[in-house]
Amino acid sequence: MRIVSGGVSDVGRVRTNNEDCFRIVTPLNLFVLSDGMGGEAHGEIASALAVETLVKHCMDTEKNPAAPFFGQPNPGWNARTKRLASAVYLANKNIFQSAEEHPEQHGMGATMTAAWIEGVKLSIAHVGDSRAYLLRSGNLLQLTQDHSLVAEQVRRGILTAAEADESDMQSVLLRALGAQPEIEVDAEEQVLIARDVLLLCSDGLTRMVTEPEIAGTLQAETDPTKAAERLVSLANENGGADNITVVVVRLETDSKGWFSWLRRGAQKKTGGNGSTGGK
Amino acid sequence: MPKLSLMFENKIVKELPVGSRPVTIGRSPDNDLPVDNLAVSNHHAKVYFEAGRLVIEDLDSLNGTFVNDLRIERATLHDGDKIHIGKHHIKVDTSGDAPAAAWDSGKKTVAAPRINETMVLDTKERRQMLQQAAAMGESMQFASTRMKVPTLVVLNGRTDQKEYVLTNKLTVIGKSAMATVRLKGWFKPAMSAQINQRDDGYYLGPGDKVPNVNGTPIHGPVRLNDGDLIEVSGVRLNFIFRE
To answer: Are strands A244-252 and A2-10 parallel, antiparallel or unpaired?
Structure first.
C-alpha cells in the first residue's frame, strides 16, 4: 500500500496565536498532532515540546528497538504501540519538568494524538481531546476517546451527546500532558485496508464542523493536503473559534489490478525504472 | 417497537415498549420496570438498543439475571426470550417491527464560539467533579470482581486452532501471517475481520469482508456480547466469556 498525507494548521478567526502543532515524518509514516494550552505563549511551547519529544524518541529507537519502554505499556499492545505510548509518556515528563524549572510556564499543557503506520498496522497513542478518525467505506469511526469532562459524563450516561455539545464545560480536560508527573496513555490498534483515510485533528475542527461534513469532505477530496485545507476553511466559515489543525493520511493501492501488475513486471524485465510508483 | 412484559405466575403485571432510552429494571420505584420482590436488587438490570440489537445488561445484581435459564452479564435478546429476575419473568416480544431507535448521528449544533481557555483538572478537583457527576446520575456500575476471559470458539471452518483466547488489543481474523485466527484454505482473504479491545468491551469490525453477527451483516464496529455468533469467510465462531 502507498501512503500519501498532508496537514494544515490555522490560527482560526478569533485567536491571535496558534498553539497547535503537528508533524509528519514521512520516512517513518509517523503522524503527530498536539494542541497546547497555557497563558502567554506557553501553550505553543508545550505543544512544540510534546511533538519534538515524541518524534525524537521514535526516531532514536528506530535504530535501537531494544530500548526500554516507559510508563506502563499494556502487555496486549504490539511493540509499535508500546513505543508510541512510551514517547507520549516522555513528552508528558518533559513538559512537566520544563514547567517546574520555569515558574512562568506553570500550568502549561498539551493534548497529543499520534499515529504510526507499519505495513498495514496502525498504532495510535492519545491523551486529551484532539481526535483520530478512520474513514472506511464511507463510515467515519472515532478511534480515540476525548479525555474531557463532558465526554466522561456522556460515557457515564449523565449527559446526552447533544447536551455535551451545548455544555459550557467543553474545555475542561481530565487528562493532558504536563499536568502531572505521570500520565496514563490510551492506545488503539487497527489493521488498515486500501482506501482507508486516517484523520488527526484538534478540537478547533470538531467543535466547528459536524462529523457528516468531515466524512463528506474526506470522500470528495482525494488529495490529502487539499482535503485538510477544505476542512480548515469549513471550520473558519463556521466561526473558527479556536486554532484548527488537520492531518489527513490516505492509503492507496499501489496497483490498479492485474493488468498494471503485469505491466510493471514487464517494465522490470525490460529495465524500466518503475516510475509507476509503488513501495 | 419491541415490548417487555413483566409476568408473575403467568399473569402480566406490566408491559413496556423499549424505545431509544434504556429501560431499567429493579426493586427501587425509580426504575422504568419496578419489580417488587426482595430477591431483586434496587437497580438490577437494564435493556437497551446497541447497534440495532436489543441488549440486556446485569447491573451487578446480587441474585443475577437469567436469559432462558442461563445467568448472563450481557446478552443480546431475541423474540420470545424469557428473562428471569427473582421470582418474576419478563417476556421479550420483538415481533412488532424494526428498532425505532434512530441512531443519533452525532450531529453537532454549532454553538456560539466559546473562547474560554482549555483547562486541566488536577487529581483532587477531578475526583470531586466526577463524584458530583456520579451523584447526578446513578449509573456507576463498573468494576466486576470475577475474571472473565474473552474466548473465540471455532464451531466450523478450517483454522489453525479450535479456540482462541483474546489477550491482545487487536485480534485479526484472516489468512495473513499476522492474523491470530489463521484461516486455512484457498481464496481466503488476508484480513477478513478484526476484533478491537476497548475499555468497555470487544468490538468486531469488518476487514476485506463484511462479517455477520447473529445473522446480521455488520458494516461498522459492533460490541460483542457473550454468546454472539460470528460468521466470516466460511468460518463460524462463538464469542464467549469464560470465567
So the answer is: antiparallel
Return the percentage of chain A with pLDDT > 70, whole number. 91
Nearest-CB residue to B119 (from A14, A141, A171): A171
Q: How many CB atoms lie within 10 A of CB A126?
A: 28
On the question of pLDDT at A278 being above 50, the answer is: no
pTM of this prediction? Answer: 0.69
Query: What angle do helix axes A211-220 and A224-237 make, rounded to 10 degrees?
Result: 150
Cβ distance of A152 and B121 shorter than 8 Å: no
Instruction: Collect all residues with Cβ–Cβ distance below 8 Å to A226 and sequence separation of at least 6.
Output: A6
Q: Are strands B235-242 and B65-67 parallel, antiparallel or unpaired?
A: unpaired
Note whether B118 contacts A74, CB cutoff 8 Å.
no
User: Number of residue pairs across A and B with CB atoms under 8 Å?
Assistant: 138
The set of cell numbers assigned to B116 is 474560554
Averaged pLDDT for residues A207-226:
96
Instruction: For residue A6, give how far its alpha carbon lies from the nearest alpha carbon of chain B (Å).
Output: 25
Query: Nearest 5 degrees, angle CA A136-CA B106-CA B129?
Result: 120
Q: How confident is the model at residue B115 (pLDDT cuts 50, 70, 90)?
A: very low
Angle, CA B206 vertex, CA B200 and CA B208 arms, to 5°: 155
In this prediction, residue A254 carries a pLDDT of 72
Question: Residue A261: is its pLDDT beyond 90?
Answer: no
Q: Pick left, alpha or beta for residue A240 (phi over 0 → left; psi -120 to 50 → alpha; otherwise beta).
A: left
Paired residues of A242 in beta bridges: none
In 3-state terms, what secondary structure has residue A245?
strand
Q: Express each pLDDT in B39-49 by its tens digit.
A: 888 899 999 98
CA nearest B137 in A: which residue? A158
**Does B69 contact chain A (CB < 8 Å)?**
no
Judged by CB atoms within 8 Å, which residues 88-107 of B form the interface with A?
A: 104-107
- Residues of chain B positioned with their CB less than 8 A from the CB of A77: 168-169
Over 80: is that where the pLDDT of A268 sits? Answer: no
